[in-house]
Each structure stands twice: as C-alpha cells, then as structure tokens.
Design a protein that fits this description.
The protein is an alpha/beta fold. 29% of the residues lie in helices and 31% in strands. The strands form four sheets. Strands 1-2-5-4-3-6-9 form a seven-stranded mixed beta sheet, with helices on both faces. Strands 12-13-16-15-14-17 form a six-stranded antiparallel barrel. A two-stranded antiparallel sheet has the order 7-8. Helix 6 packs across helix 7 and helix 8 runs antiparallel to helix 9.
C-alpha cells in the first residue's frame, strides 16, 4: 500500500487525496477545472492537457485538479497485458505539482470503481465530489462501466451538471504521435534520447543506493553506486551516459544496465552508476536518481579490468 493511501496529503504546492469518496467526506467540493487521465510519464501530450486545466482554473478562480488512477486499469482486467509504468506514482505526483496542479485525486482502480456507471461517474464524482466546472480529457476519452461513456456523452451531461467538457487532440512531434506507449517502446529499445524528446526531459530511474560488490573505488578507480530501482520500466541492456542526482547534488555518470559479464555475474540484473568525478563519502541507503542522456553501446564482456 502506498504511503498516501487512505488519507489526504497536503504539501506547499499540491494536495493529494486517495479517492473521490475521501475528498467528498472531508470538504464541500471547491469549483474545479479537472484533467482526467493516467498521465504516465507526464509527456508532451499530458503537459498540453494539464496546461489547459491550469489556464482555465486561473482564468475563473477555480482549483486546478488532476483525477488519475492507480493501478493502471489493465492491471485489474488483463494483468498479462498491463503496461510497465514509466515512473512510480510518487514521481508522477511530483510532476503534476510542478505543472501547477493544486489537487490530485488518485482513484484506487478496483472492481467496485470499475462498476461505476457513466451517469454515476459524472453525477457522483465529477459534479458532487470534485465540483467540476471544466473537464479536460483526451479526444478518445471513455469512462464508466464497460467504457460506455465517451466525449459526446460527457459534453451532453456537462450541460446538465454545469460544466464544460474540453476534448484535447493528441500531440504530434515531427509526425510522431506522442504517447506513453511510444515512450515505453523507446526506453525498452534503449533509445533514451528519443524518449527524452517525447517526455521533454531525460527518462529517469529513481531508487535507493545499495551495497554492491565494492569494486568501484578499489578495483575500477572511481565510485560506483548500485541502484535498487522503484521503477518497473527499465532501459534495454547496455551502457548509458547519464546524470546522477542524490544527496551529493548532480554528477556526470556512466550507467551499466545488465549482468556484469566481465565479472561472470550472469543471473541478476544490476543498475550500476559509475561517478568518475565524485570524491565524497559513501551514500548507501539514500535516494538516488539517474537521468538517462544517451546510449553509448551494448554491454560487453572483457577479458579483465584492463
């Protein structure tokens, strides 16, 4: 269970609420401009949608709100087809806050919620709980039990319930439709520079520094940080140029994603960041982030350290 589950979290920039029922139980609904989506990766397309939410809210004195879901709906219905999420939920929330969203409702996607009719989705959630005045969605948006609601129905029900629905077209970049699916495919192929373009930032892994084989300082001549990632989606095996971020600030890094064939370690996938310019103390058990800039080469086996 994530640390925010079952309660509201308030920060200086964004309030996070676990489910619309808790929001409705705690306060009367504040008039809101709402963006609905999973927002995995918060890529260019998501950012365009959420910018519209923030602009509408600013123009009318509304609360800019994101309504998102965890886990991904496919995890419930077809887990074998569920996508690997680009980033952990905690990072997604950080990115929503950075865009100016003041409140995010994270809906636990379970069978009870999946049974919500399209009418109840609008009446109980968007109107009664969230106080919708504007609802911004992708043009292909569907909602409610068995996805019986669509944008046309949302627009029609908005007239009845006092909100306006705004469908947003897919964003295209140099002829490529920007989507979470495309970002995942690029990362899985090791094409992190392409993922950077669609995300508008480098693909990032976040996790904890753990004790490894301690080869960095003694054998290789420079510090090595072994990461236990929080991410599900990982880049293809290989060696990458990256920026490492941690309690030490930011450092240039060379990251190996693989099995360390030179050292005969062929069973456990490891993420090792080599920090050639770092000369400080160890930072085990601290939060660590890796921003992937480009892929250098495949992972290779060498005869030895030389």
């Amino acid at each position: 269970m994530p640390p925010w589950a079952g309660r509201c979290i308030c920060s200086a920039s964004m309030r996070v609420v676990s489910g619309y029922r808790r929001l409705a139980a705690n306060t009367a609904p504040s008039p809101s401009a709402i963006g609905i989506g999973i927002f995995d990766g918060v890529h260019q397309g998501h950012r365009a949608l959420l910018r519209q939410v923030v602009d509408l809210a600013s123009a009318e004195g509304l609360v800019p709100t994101a309504y998102t879901f965890d886990p991904h709906p496919a995890t419930l219905f077809r887990p074998e087809l569920a996508p690997q999420m680009i980033e952990p939920l905690a990072v997604r929330l950080e990115r929503l806050a950075a865009l100016g969203i003041a409140c995010t409702v994270v809906e636990p996607f379970d069978r009870t919620f999946a049974a919500t009719t399209a009418d109840a989705y609008v009446e109980t959630i968007l109107d009664a709980a969230l106080g919708a005045r504007h609802v911004v969605v992708g043009r292909g948006f569907v909602f409610g039990h068995q996805q019986r609601g669509n944008v046309a129905l949302l627009q029609a029900m908005g007239v009845k319930h006092g909100f306006k629905a705004h469908p947003v077209d897919h964003v295209r970049f140099e002829g490529i439709e920007v989507s979470s699916t495309k970002v995942r495919a690029l990362v899985q192929a090791g094409q992190v520079a392409g993922a950077h373009v669609l995300l508008t930032r480098p693909f990032m892994l976040t996790g904890t520094v753990v004790s490894g084989d301690r080869r960095g300082g003694s054998q290789l001549g420079f510090p090595t940080a072994n990461m236990r990632p929080d991410n599900v989606l990982l880049p293809a095996l290989g060696v990458y140029a990256a920026q490492a971020e941690g309690q030490f600030g930011t450092q240039a890094a060379v990251v190996n994603v693989g099995y360390n064939p030179t050292f005969g370690e062929g069973t456990q996938l490891k993420i090792e960041a080599h920090l050639p310019d770092y000369a400080g103390p160890d930072f085990y058990d601290t939060t660590f982030r890796l921003h992937f800039i480009d892929r250098i080469r495949d992972e290779m086996r060498f005869d030895g350290l030389e």
